[in-house]
Design a protein that fits this description.
Largest sheet: 4 strands, mixed
Low-confidence stretches: 1-8, 10-28
Helix content: 40-55%
Structural class: alpha/beta
Distance between the termini: 24 Å
Shape: globular
Number of strands: 12
């Protein structure tokens, strides 16, 4: 199903360029009555409701319709692709107006006529976009230098750790001092050994550090049509096997219940790698004994955490908003994009309320230098640590195969880490899976 959907979309793109080029030229004067938004979870929905809808910016006669399909099994992309393929003939109320994409597969939609030109078609200006971090625009710029999407967040990452474990094992929970003990991978490994000796896991499992290594590759996953495995990926494999064999991790897979449970009050995991969205949207919730209870110290391990940059700077993920060609809600798309990705006041408020690192350099400098305190992080203002790394993020090695490669190597290596196969077999299984997914590639 996945391959069929991708192939169908690719074919359709070739034949539909003229149709969508026509639709891009005409901003409909009459506003549609249904605003269809396609996404895969409730993160953007929360941002939209709290910072756009609550501000009274949705026209009274417009119904906002959320089409939320989980990412698992490529279900979201399949659903979106199906809708985009039907866009030309869909009724006005059924057309896709806005859809979201992630970094791993953004390029699939950037160089297509399905995504509207953010400037010429939607109307954002260079001045509106001036404070956004450069890499967030690079990701969504097509081969003709046209910007096709915008994001409310930038995603530099670091290491989020348990304060109480740090005090016990390292003698301090101070982020500056802990960072000095974790400032390179050799030091990180040494602390992992200390954590193990005290009954703790350095990481929850196999995939925790994957994004650190994959974001620091010096070459893309595919060179020409040949699969390319960067040395940074091989470092992740060797380190994770060592961590598994020595009991430095809890053998959990990312997003599993076991991974989340390691962060609870009685959990034994010292830390997790992640950016701002991971802290707010994932980890904070995992730590609470009462999911509906207060975001305050005493509810599980909430508040017993701190943040440092860790052994290597990296970025992870990000969500971009795209306007769909054929939409009859161009003005509303513009207003959403401007408010949630350009307006300094809104982006400051998002950061102060959620801890997310928003995509506005001026706003982030304001929050970082202000009185903001993150309750989950024991009152720490961690955003200041992101300022330099956000400007340094580069996506030069990003490619259209990133999502598939990341999924297949993590799956193949899990069997190796668990001792089900040897390393050679794991690599062979990886190549087999990739070539099945991308038959145009070679080993």
């Amino acid at each position: 199903m996945k391959k069929l959907a991708v192939v169908a979309l690719a074919v359709a793109l070739v034949t539909s360029t003229t149709v969508f080029a026509r639709s891009k030229k005409s901003k409909q004067a009459k506003q549609g009555k249904v605003f269809n938004i396609y996404c895969w979870n409730e993160e953007f929905q929360t941002r939209f409701k709290d910072f756009f809808e609550a501000a009274g910016k949705v026209p009274a006669d417009v119904k906002v319709n959320w089409i939320i399909t989980p990412n698992q099994g490529n279900a979201y992309q399949n659903k979106l692709d199906e809708a985009l393929l039907q866009q030309e003939n869909a009724s006005a109320d059924d057309k896709v107006d806005m859809f979201l994409v992630e970094a791993d597969y953004a390029l699939k939609y950037v160089d297509t006529p399905y995504t509207l030109d953010v400037k010429k078609a939607i109307g954002l200006t260079d001045a509106d976009l001036a404070n956004q971090y450069k890499y967030t625009k690079d990701v969504m710029t097509d081969s003709k230098k046209v910007l096709k999407g915008v994001s409310w967040q930038a995603c530099p990452g670091g290491f989020i750790y348990r304060r109480s474990f740090a005090k016990q094992v390292l003698g301090t929970d101070d982020p500056t001092k802990v960072q000095a003990m974790l400032s390179d991978w050799d030091k990180f490994d040494a602390v992992a050994a200390k954590m193990k000796a005290n009954g703790y896991f350095m990481l929850s499992g196999f995939d925790d550090s994957f994004r650190v290594f994959s974001d620091n590759v010096k070459s893309p996953w595919v060179v020409g049509n040949k699969i390319n495995v960067d040395p940074s990926i091989k470092h992740w494999v060797s380190q994770t096997k060592m961590y598994t064999d020595k009991g430095y991790n809890n053998k959990a897979n990312l997003w599993s219940a076991e991974s989340g449970n390691g962060a609870k009050k009685n959990g034994k995991v010292f830390g997790y790698f992640g950016p701002g969205w991971f802290i707010d949207f994932c980890l904070a919730g995992w730590t609470k004994d009462d999911p509906d209870g207060p975001n305050a110290a005493g509810n599980g391990s909430y508040g017993d955490w701190a943040f440092c940059m860790g052994p290597q700077g990296f970025s992870w993920g990000g969500t971009w908003i795209c306007g769909a060609a054929g939409s009859d809600n161009i003005q509303l798309i513009h207003d959403v994009m401007y408010t949630l990705t350009c307006d300094k006041t809104t982006m400051t408020a998002i950061s102060e309320k959620t801890g997310d690192f928003t995509n506005n350099e001026v706003a982030m400098k304001t929050v970082a230098g202000g009185s903001y305190k993150n309750a989950f992080l024991g009152g720490q203002n961690h955003l200041a640590l992101f300022l330099d790394s956000a400007k340094a993020i580069s996506k030069n090695n990003m490619g259209p195969y990133d999502q598939g490669m990341a999924e297949k190597i993590q799956a193949a290596m899990a069997d190796y880490y668990n001792g089900k196969v040897d390393e050679t077999t794991a690599w062979n299984n990886f190549y087999t899976a990739v070539l099945e997914l991308y038959p145009n590639l070679t080993k």
